[in-house]
Amino acid sequence: MTTKKTTRKKVSKKKISTVKSKTRTTKNHYGRRAIYIVDGARSPQLKARGKQGPFSAADLAVNCSRPLLARQDFDPTAIDEVIMGCVMPSADEANIARILGLRLHCGNDVPAYTVQRNCASGMQALDSAAQSIAMRRSELILAGGVESMSRAPVMLNGHMVNWLSDWMRAKTITQKVKTIAQLRPKFFAPIIGLLRGLSDPVKGLSMGQTAEIIADKFNISREMMDHYAVQSHQRLNMAQENNNLTEIETIYDTNGNFYSHDDGVRPDTDMASLAKLKPVFDRPFGNVTAGNSAQITDGASVLLLASEKALKDHNLTPVAQILDCEWAGLEPAQMGLGPVHAITPILQRNKYDFNDIDYFEINEAFAAQVLACLAAWQDEQYCKQELQLNAPLGELSMDKLNVDGGGISLGHPVGASGARIVLHLMNILQRTKTTRGIASLCIGGGQGGAMMIERV
Description:
Layout: E1 35-42, E2 46-47, H1 57-70, E3 81-85, H2 96-103, E4 112-115, H3 121-134, E5 140-148, E6 154-155, H4 158-169, H5 173-181, E7 191-192, H6 193-197, E8 199-200, E9 205-206, H7 207-217, H8 222-241, E10 251-252, E11 258-259, H9 271-275, E12 297-306, H10 308-314, E13 320-329, H11 338-349, E14 359-362, H12 367-378, H13 380-385, H14 407-410, H15 417-432, E15 436-443, E16 447-455
Parallel strand pairs: 3-4, 3-5, 14-15
Antiparallel strand pairs: 1-12, 1-13, 2-12, 5-12, 6-7, 8-9, 10-11, 13-16, 15-16
C-alpha cells in the first residue's frame, strides 16, 4: 500500500473546515510509508500505597512485553529497535529500553533508547518509532512507556552530598572526627524525586497548582470536578465488568502473587465522599483534591509498530495506522490546556471537526484540566487569541471521551500513559468497529501532545 507523499507544514490560521464523511482515508503525515500498529499489551496499573510497589519499572515492561511477543510468529530478534518512555528510572535502570530489549532476547545487536517528555514520554516513544519507520531506518519496532512511581528515587540533598565528599577524602582519624563534627540534622532531609518531578522548576508551581489556575480561568467548580471524577470511576468499573480492557496482561511477582486488573478503581465513589476531601494544592480555598486528580500509579504499556514490508515479511495483520502526531508548547502555568493546542492543529490540517473523530482519549491528569480543555474549545476569546481560529471549535461530546475511564480512576504512571491511551484507543476502535480516534495529554512544563490513529 502506498500513499501520496505529503510534507508537514505549519498549521494554517484559517478556520477549520467541517467535513462530515468518516469514510474517507486520512493522509499519512509521516510521508510515503504507512505506520502500522500490529499489536499491543500493558500491565495492570497498580496504585502506589505509600511504599515501594511489587515491581520495578523494568519488571513491569518485561512482564507485559513477553506475552505480547509470545503470540507473534516472528522471533524477538526480528525487532529492529526498542524505544521506551520513562521519566523516573531507578539507579539500576539507566536506558530502560536497552534493559527491556536484552531481557526479551531481542539480541545484542538490536539498538534501544529511552525518551523523556514528562507525561507524554510513552507517546514520544511511539512518535519516534513512527519516524524511524518512515525514514526507512527500521521496519519493526517495540515501543511504549513505563513508570514505577512508587519507586521514584529519593535523593540526598546538596549538604549531604558535599559532606559525603568530605568524608571520602578524610584519611586520618583526626580528619574523620573533624568531618563528623560538621554533620548537621538538615543534611538528612531527603529530596523526594516524585514531588520534584511533579513540579515546574521554572514557574515554581506544582502540576496541581496549574490545574487550579485553569480551573479559575474557565470557572470549573469543585462540584464539576467531583462529578467528573465519579464518572471516571463508574466508567472504569463498567469497563472491567464488561471485559473491555483486553489489552491487560496478568503479571506475577516473585512471591507468586498475580495482578490482573487496575486496582485504583473505587466503584463506590460518590459526590458525598469526594466532597469531604480537602484541597491539596491551594489550601484552604482551592478545589483540586486527591479525589479529582490522577492517582500515583505503576504501569507499563508497549506496542508493536511495523512498516508494510514488515507486515509482508512476517505475515502480520495490522490493527491500526498512526497517521498524524502533533507537539505543542504553551504557557507552563496553563500546561493542562496542552491537549487543546495539540489536537486543534491535527483537526485543522486534516480538515476535520469533532464530528469526524469517533473517540478521544485525553489523559486525566486532573478533572479540572480535562474540563478546562472542553471549555477552552467553546470559548470564543480563547479560540481566537490562543488558537487563531475565527470561531469556537465547538463541543466535544462526553459520549466519545474517555469512555472506559482514565487517569483519575486507573492512574497516571507518567512514562507509560502516552502509550496506554493510544493502545486503548486502538482497542476501542476495534471493539466498536469505528474508524478514527485521537489520543492526547497535557505535559508538565507547558506542552501538549496528540496522536491520531485509524482502524485498519
